[in-house]
Amino acid sequence: MAPLLPDYAAEQRRHQRVRATLLGRYMLADRREYPCQTVDMSPGGVRLTCAVIGALGERVVLYLEQIGRLEGVIVRHPPGGFAMRINATPRKRDKIASQLMWLANRESLGLPEGRTNERLVPNQPGVTLRLENGRFIAARIIDISMSGVALATASAPPIGTHLLVGSTPGRVVRYFEGGIGAQFMLPISPDRFHEGITL
């Protein structure tokens, strides 16, 4: 077994680890993306099952459903994947702790899944929607997550309609007053998910 990097054992003791099965994607130093699944997680670290295992000390950008974007470094190689230490501010760690507690409670109480993906508002919220029939609709991004977008628009295509949000493929999944919600066909890459994003 690979040796622990300094303070990883302390990190494990400091934060309670929660068994959690979350799907995600991660990017190593070569900037290629790979799918993964969590085994367990704490606000300080996460253990992943994955096919491509980076080097000890290598930087990782990870996106997890329900949690959002995380950054860290690989600290050990358990069978079938790797464990990473999460680099985050105390405020971000508190947020992760709350999300993990909610996920643990949701599973034990059988609660329905909520919308907990990290969301942001882009600097340039104006976007054009292109429908399957070639029609264009002007829209404004209310907020965006890696898996979907809320759009303010005067026109509401039917639920299930496939469309391009800018150049990003998606489909209409819900209505709300003054707009629509669209789900992306593929999650947005972690390195693109910031306020400067252009769809």
TrEMBL record:
GO terms assigned for molecular function: cyclic-di-GMP binding
Protein origin, superkingdom: Bacteria
Pfam families: PilZ
Ranges of residues in domain PilZ: 11-98, 115-191
Protein name: PilZ domain-containing protein
Taxonomy of the source species: Bacteria, Pseudomonadati, Pseudomonadota, Alphaproteobacteria, Hyphomicrobiales
